[in-house]
Design brief:
The complex is a heterotrimer of chains A (290), B (159) and C (761). Chain A has eleven helices and 14 strands. Chain A is an alpha+beta fold and 290 residues long. The longest helix of chain A is centred in the last third of the chain and has 25 residues. Chain B contains five helices and five strands, in the order E-E-H-E-E-E-H-H-H-H. In chain B, 31% of the residues lie in helices and 16% in strands. Chain B is α+β, with helices and mostly antiparallel strands and 159 residues long. Chain B has a five-stranded mixed beta sheet, with helices on both faces. Chain B has two domains: 76 residues, Roll (Ubiquitin-like (UB roll)), CATH 3.10.20.30; 65 residues, [2Fe-2S]-binding domain (DNA polymerase, domain 1). In chain C, strand 30 and strand 31 form a beta hairpin. Chain C has three domains: 151 residues, Aldehyde oxidase/xanthine dehydrogenase, molybdopterin binding domain (Aldehyde Oxidoreductase, domain 4, 2-Layer Sandwich), CATH 3.30.365; 185 residues, Aldehyde oxidase/xanthine dehydrogenase, a/b hammerhead (Aldehyde Oxidoreductase, domain 3), CATH 3.90.1170.50; 318 residues, Aldehyde oxidase/xanthine dehydrogenase, molybdopterin binding domain (Aldehyde Oxidoreductase, domain 4, 2-Layer Sandwich), CATH 3.30.365.10. In chain C, the strands form nine sheets. In chain C, strands 3-5-1-12-9-10-11 form a seven-stranded mixed beta sheet. Chain C has a five-stranded mixed beta sheet with strand order 7-16-15-14-8. Chain C has a four-stranded mixed beta sheet with strand order 20-28-29-32, with helices on both faces. Chain C is globular. With 761 residues, chain C is of the alpha+beta class. The chains are: A alpha+beta (290), B alpha+beta (159), C alpha+beta (761). Chains A and B meet through helix 2 and helix 6 of A and strand 4 and helix 3 of B. The complex binds flavin-adenine dinucleotide (FAD) and FE2/S2 (inorganic) cluster (2 copies). The site of one FE2/S2 (inorganic) cluster has 12 residues of chain B, from loops.
Amino acid sequence: MINDFEHFTPKTLKEALALLAKYGDDCKVICGGQSLLILMRQGLVSPKYIVDIKGISELSYIKDDKDGVKIGATTTHRAVEKSAVIKKKYPVLAEMETRLASVQTRNWGTIGGNVCHGDPAGDPVPVLIALNATLTVAGARGTRSIPVENFSLDYFEVDLKDGELLAEITIPPPPPRTGAVYTKFNIIESDLATVSVAASVTLGAGDGVCQDVRIALGAVAPTAIRAKKAEKVLKGKKITDALLKEAGEVAATETEPISDIYASEEYRLELVKALVPRMTKEALARAKKA
Amino acid sequence: MKKELKFKVNGQPYEIFVKPKTLLVEVLRDLVGLTGTKRGCSSSSCGACTVMLDGMAVKSCSVLALQANGTEVVTVEGLAKGNELSPLQRAFLDHGSYQCGFCTPGMLMSSTALLTENPRPTKLEIKEGIDGNICRCTGYNAIVRAVTAVVKGEYKEAK
Amino acid sequence: MSDYSVIGKRVHNIDGTEKVTGSGKYTFDVVLPNMLYGKILRSPHPHAKILKIDTRRAKRLVGVKAVVTGKDTLGRKQGIWRRFPELCDEEILCRAKVRYIGDAVAAVAAIDEDTAEEALDLIDVEYEPLPAVFDPMDAIKEDAPQIHEGVELNININRHIEWGDVDEAFEKCDHIREDKFKCSSQAHVCMETHDAVASFGHNGKLEVWTSSQSSYYIQRLYADMLDMNESDIRVTNRHTGGGFGSKFELDSAQFCAAILSQKLCQPVKIVLTREEEFTATKRRTPMYYFLKLGAKKDGTMLAKEVRVITEGGAYTAMGATALYLTGFFSSFPYKYPNYRYDGYRVYTNTATTSAMRGFGAPQSTFVGESQIDMMAEDLGIDPVEIRRKNGMTPNYEVPGQAFIQSCGLHQCLDKIEEHIEKRGKLPPNHGIGVSAYGFMSGGIFNWFNTPYAFSAAVVRINIDGKVDVYTGTCDMGQGSNTTLAMICAEELGVRLEDVRMFSGDTGICPPDLGAWGSRQTLMGGNAVKMAAAECKQQLIEFTAAKMGVNIVYDLDIKDRWVHLVDRPERGVSYFDIVKEAIRGKDGVAIMGRGHYTPHRKGMISPAYSFGVQAAEVEVDPETGRYKLVNVTTAHESGTVINPVGIEGQLEGAIMMAGGYGFCEDQPMDEGKILNPSIADYKLIRSLDMPETDILEIDTYEPEGPFGAKEAGEGLTNPTAGAIGNAVYKAVGVRIYDLPITPEKVFKALKEKEKQQKKAKK
Ligand SMILES: Cc1cc2nc3c(=O)[nH]c(=O)nc-3n(C[C@H](O)[C@H](O)[C@H](O)COP(=O)(O)OP(=O)(O)OC[C@H]3O[C@@H](n4cnc5c(N)ncnc54)[C@H](O)[C@@H]3O)c2cc1C
Ligand code: FES
Ligand code: FES
């Protein structure tokens, strides 16, 4: 049963921030509600006030400019998935979206809501980490930006202070000769990830050396994480199968997976070892083609 | 505490006062009286409550009714034109795409939304289009066959 | 065969337009004037004494109209095995003790669901937790807590089946295998959860709308529990949003709604939440299986010994039947000359296990078909060949148990062999696994102790020639109304659109045991056919008299034309004859009655259907993840009455049985089900669904209506075994416990690698 609450529908970001400032702790933001309503129904969250930002049109956009592509927080998953710009510049992001939940959830749920929900098994965050994205957070006292990889703090906890809202996601233009991929391991195709891996590889001009690599993992720690040590194994080298295998082994040491009804801790580790090399190799192949 | 919700359902305008916590499915079933839309889980997992909102498939158990303010909702009751069933409805009949029928309204709404957006989906796209809907009876393939038949033009739209 | 005019045709289900327009009313949609909403308070403890229930705070909540506990009931216990009172062990609203997490202790009726739910929080129950036991292997130990008074070692029931001389036969075998398996639980996951609207009137009569597979059972069990006359209770099943074996026992929604309504004389509606559906309704029986199988070098199987321990959960329910059937179907579909089965159903402090589509046979088929593949490999024989060598044939008697008339198993094996050959060389890490099966067409056993015929029907022809069929059968989505209407139309010689079905309403339909054990087509069908034949006979007699037909001619009706069999052009319109016949009978509609109870057909079922399935999987050896690529089934179910219906049953069965093999499970911690939501309980969705192909085999079952038999449940039997065998063919690992998850496959692959390395050293 959902408890009663008071409902506000601000029309602008400014109005929303004012409402948040006014109601503070007793107040919760709702956007698509695809995650929040489940928590409210279970009684895990029961706010007195709800600030509904779904209708703030100034936060729903996909813009392409010189700093990269900017996605407003209330942009739906489906809009990201269908965006021509995204498909062209960051195909991995659109591909990820096609496997996030179902069409219905993507039609109403938003990428901003997903990132703020802080689910370590969520799909967008690992991809955004691999793409080196930055978040713009708006508060009563102005805005701040924060790399997406630092945003999640713990299970379902993100770096939002009282009165703050996620306003925008910025993805920098991909460097030349970059390829990025994402996969999630699950048993039912459209399900949440048991383990997920995003990888982005940038090759040096002409020499085939891995100039940069970003590897992000989901569902193997309290937050999505970046496997920096594994990246180090590959960075500045010509990628071989042996190095990839090593990167997988190293990535596994960077995780802290749990056992749950979907998979044991050991199995999750093994999946990281199998999938990190496989996905990095695919990213490499894409980089070569780029 | 109640707030006004103005929206259209199957073309008919409604003005209804609802508590903010009211879900779209509750308005449709309990206040508008359209019980074709079902609920199988109330947690966004089964798709039985799927309706079209401004042309998009959404799970009405997971949309606050007030968020539908100003929108146009279509439910399974809105698919037929008068006494003419829609092409998908006829194809479902011919292909045995329902058994107990409890998932069927949701399946029809997901398929209708899919074809509205993409009139020529591939088989994989059809499967993706109904992947948010559980059917415990049919095993889905008969539904995919029905949608495929409509895509192939075997069922004409009623005038 | 082809001179049928209705049977075998591809038709729309007769309730199809209601279903595709959303206009069909389910119990879930029923709203009555003055109706209240009920909710049920359930035990959070797996095993506890109820010391005190204080409902005062709840009763004071504005909007609450009644709160009931076990004290408001007659304190009776119910169960489906009514012939054995000691097996009727479930109070539904517990008075002194709760036995699983989810056992009902109180119920509330209020003006809306939210208020009722709020009231649940205000009921104070004082429990004294008792030691609990969850695994049947622990529950049969001497020192295990006793779940039901006086039941030693928690053994609820045991079953023994034996023929031949098993011990002697094993001595003659060239090769013997002994294997252990474990079959998991499974939830029915009907899309419409259990629900009921009960309305008790001031006239002392009870009317109930409920989603059910057997209105008659529910009516009878209500009568037992409320001490009422059957006839004062009317149970109506409207459209039912799925059953799969979960909806023919009196459940907590039905019982609590009635008790509340009785108190208030107001209608009360209870719809179980999805979480309750997962935790507080019945489920498939988990089983420990110990198998011993002996064969000659040439693959002839001489003896099989089966021992089974099943997790019963808190109450008997239909679990006792599952225990019996898993034992019987462990011999299927083969001719074991010597066979012994010992099964024990053990009470545990977990949700009750009972009937679910296949009823013990999916378990026995998984373990049996896994083991027979292992035996074939040991002996160096092809899996299809070993099945052929031992498979049942028509007119086979299962010694002392059952007589099998029609049986198309061998044709099915041929078809599947062809399919595998056609598929040719498979890509790497693909494998095709085979699994053979059989199933019954309705049970002969009468543990329910009904004095009525197993099936009955009334057919009435109205003045306009339209036909009404009244039958106590229940259409839960399997399409029985359509199949029965087709049988009626064929028998009577009218068109399908001339027939209207009234089913599952105890107020107007003759009793029928309902839709379980795959009994509707054969048993319900025979009853309808007989009733239709009686009507037809009256019309024919009338026509013969009217036309002054020479006595040497036979008359028949086909496609609304009453005519001479040998001179079909000589006849009259069915509609005209009906009009005149009714007028001639002083205005009385033409009526026919039919019934069916199997006699002299052994102890199990009057008929059996058979099939063979081949599942193809593709395994990713690095992760153990596999995909179901294709499932091809060669299947025989006698005359196919409703082909669209059979295809649907088959594909639906693959979704469910594939899920049983692949991903569905109910993991528990101290009796608590850990995945009670559709998000966490993994179900095959459209993207996971394999391609499905059907190879239909013609057979004719003399006992069935127009030669038809079962085609619904049996199809759930083979898939888990076929998947297991396919995974083995693909990557060489055998999984002994369901479901066959990627993690288990991965671990087995690692283990195999380790063994191989060891062997090399
Ligand atoms: C059946 C189902 C399956 C799913 N499967 C997947 C999956 O496979 N992969 C996946 O990644 N996700 C999945 N999800 C999660 C879901 O799709 C997303 O988390 C969802 O889209 C979140 O967006 P929303 O707009 O609905 O957020 P809401 O539910 O409205 O909000 C989520 C949280 O974020 C906060 N919030 C929302 N927007 C903002 C903002 N702009 N600023 C600050 N705080 C904000 C809210 O207060 C709340 O705490 C699934 C969900 C369902 C119901
Ligand atoms: S009821 Fe809405 S998704 Fe199940
Ligand atoms: S037809 Fe029964 S759930 Fe789909």
